[in-house]
Design a protein that fits this description.
elongated, 4-stranded parallel β-sheet, mainly beta, about 300 residues
Length: about 300
């Protein structure tokens, strides 16, 4: 067998176990085993030579294990758009060792019950939904998502809609080669739970990035940070109480900390106080009583 076509076993309510033993490379359409109302959880066993193609409907939502886990085979190069869209059973995703996954397409996990994900080193593309009619970010409105680890070996850009509406994201790790798109990032805004560490490679904290994020209480900067600019309203109306400005910063934009009512002290690290420009109303509405300058 070299091909299993679209809906070949679709709506088969009694199907619970599928064993694929093709010796040569076989192509399986992603909705071949689709069954919207199947009460069972089919188990699929397939060799690495199998390739999955086509745009999924409900295809793999019914193959998520009873404990909420789904394992991505090392032979897969793409997680197709909307693959687990609104899958309330999905909790965790695992990737086989030596994963060949390159692309996570738009809406792949949007509105699902995913709790955590560890994106493998092979991934080079995370797709945005902005260029598509009714398109969704990869993890858009994953209300249970709390832990994200991005381990991409090559440079990858995270779209600005990737984590929109992820209200419980509390742990976010990405290496220095990761880039962030969008003039107003919105990736982490209203998703942090207390502390946020500014990645080492960031040159600026974009305008309005954390505006109104009342979950944000602390900002840390990595050692030898490259940060040069804190743009307009970047931390406005957040719950931070103090901040230490790293020596690399040369600009603090207008309203950068406005109406941070809990902010009481700012410390400037050695060097930046001699060249940093501070915009209009940067500290208006705060309770800053101490500005600490190095000797």
């Amino acid at each position: 067998v070299i091909n299993i076509g679209s809906l070949s076993f679709g709506e088969n309510m009694d199907l619970s176990y599928i064993s694929i033993n093709c010796e040569s490379k076989a192509f399986i359409f992603s909705d071949a085993f689709s069954a919207d109302n199947n009460p069972n959880t089919p188990t699929i066993i397939a060799p690495d030579s199998v390739t999955y193609t086509g745009i999924p409907k409900i295809s793999y939502r019914n193959t998520v294990s009873n404990n909420g886990n789904f394992t991505v085979l090392r032979s897969w190069t793409t997680l197709p758009s909307n693959m687990f869209y609104s899958c309330k059973k999905l909790k965790t995703i695992e990737f086989e060792t030596k994963s060949g996954l390159n692309t996570i397409e738009r809406g792949a996990f949007a509105y699902s019950a995913l709790h955590s994900i560890n994106i493998p080193t092979s991934v080079t593309s995370i797709e945005s939904g902005k260029n598509f009619i009714a398109g969704h970010g990869v993890f858009e409105h994953c209300a249970h998502l709390n832990t994200v680890s991005i381990n991409c070996a090559s440079s990858v850009t995270i779209p600005s809609d990737a984590f929109t509406g992820c209200k419980n994201l509390s742990s976010f790790f990405a290496p220095n080669n990761v880039k962030y798109s969008g003039s107003t990032v919105h990736i982490i805004n209203n998703t942090v739970n207390g502390n946020f560490v500014v990645p080492k490679n960031w040159k600026s904290v974009p305008s309005n990035m954390f505006y109104g994020c009342d979950l944000l209480t602390n900002i840390d900067f990595t050692t030898n940070t490259s940060l040069e600019k804190i743009e307009n309203n970047a931390f406005a109306r957040t719950a931070i109480s103090n901040i230490t400005i790293p020596p690399s910063v040369i600009k603090i934009g207008s309203g950068a900390f406005e109406y941070c009512t809990r902010l009481s002290s700012i410390t400037f690290s050695g060097g930046c106080e001699n060249r940093v420009s501070i915009g209009k109303n940067a500290l208006i509405g705060t309770n800053v009583t101490v500005i600490d300058l190095p000797p």
